[in-house]
Amino acid sequence: MSQAPAIMWFRRDLRLRDNPALDAALRTSDGRIVCVYIRETDPTWRAMGEASQWWLDKSLRALSADLEALGSQLVLRTGSAGQVIDALLKETGAQSVFWNRRYDRPGREIDGALKSALLAQYISVTSFNGSLLTEPWTQVTGAGGYYKVYSPYWRAVQANYVCPPSIDAPLSLLPVKAETEALEDWQLHPHAPDWSAGFDAIWTPGESNARDRLFAFLDGPVEIYGDDRDRPDLEFGTSGLSPHLAFGEISPAQVWRATQNRIDANQVDEGHARKFLSEVAWRDFAYVLLFHNPDLAEENYKPDFDLMPWQDDADLLRAWQTGQTGYPIVDAGMRQLWTTGWMHNRVRMIVASFLTKHLLIDWRRGEDWFWDTLVDADPASNSASWQWVAGSGADAAPYFRIFNPITQGEKFDQTGNYVRKWCPELARLPRKYLFCPWKAGPLILREAGITLGETYPNPIVDHKTGRARALAAYDILKERRDAA
Question: What local confidence, expressed as pLDDT, does residue 2 receive?
Answer without folding.
Answer: 57
